[in-house]
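Something for you to look into today, if you have time. Just paste the record in under my message, thanks.
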Amino acid sequence: MNAPLPQDTHLPAHARARGAVRARFAANRGRSAIADLYEAGGLRLRFPRGTAGCEAVLVNTGGGVAGGDTAALSFHACADADVTLTTQAAEKIYRAQNIAARINLDLVAEEGARLEWLPQETILFDGARLTRDFTLCAAETARVTLLEATVFGRLAMGERDISGLLADRWRLRRAGKLVFAEDLRLEGEIAAILDRKACGAGARATALLLHMSPDAESLLEPVRESLSAAPCSAGASAWNGLLCVRLMSPAPEKMRAALSPLLEILRGRPAPRVWQ
């Protein structure tokens, strides 16, 4: 493990990336398409053709996220729109000095909308510091699927004993009511925390998959049946129109192998094409 960087080391403001994407999607005559788009910094949104609904791929032209960088993401699915948001590749969070990178995701799904946030994995390098804030405002009849998968360390390079910071905050609302709230904070010797039997039992990849819809609870048994054959540790529960799946594994490829059939159950179609 690399030696910690001095706590009084600071990056100048001009060395930090400030990225933003704001997009609104609308349905028109049975088709969903981008209605408004704003891009700033090194973040771009691209739209492959020939996909169900409107599939948007987030691209970070900077190649990764460093300490002090910020990304503000805001996506709005209008009534009856069908929108899938994913990323071009796994996002790399580089070793920080003393300031955490920050990613804010703000989602809105109107009546009858289908909104999916399905990025590829986020990879935390040793010494990375990252805070993420997830918020959702969904209508009663909206269908929303959210995924966040995190890999701790550059495992292919043998980097498993990592330290740093990961702080996640989730606040999901349906019809104005708070239906899911969670705060996660892993700080310091993250590998040692994940090695604890009650925390991760040696896991180096974790995922949280949430599905909100009027029929979410009816999908629990098919999801559990799929998980019974999963090559990683996983569990699922459902209540009040919300289905929650948690997965963890020492190997991220095994976790992804478990996620792909789950997404097909929840979406009724395969994982986004860029996952292939």
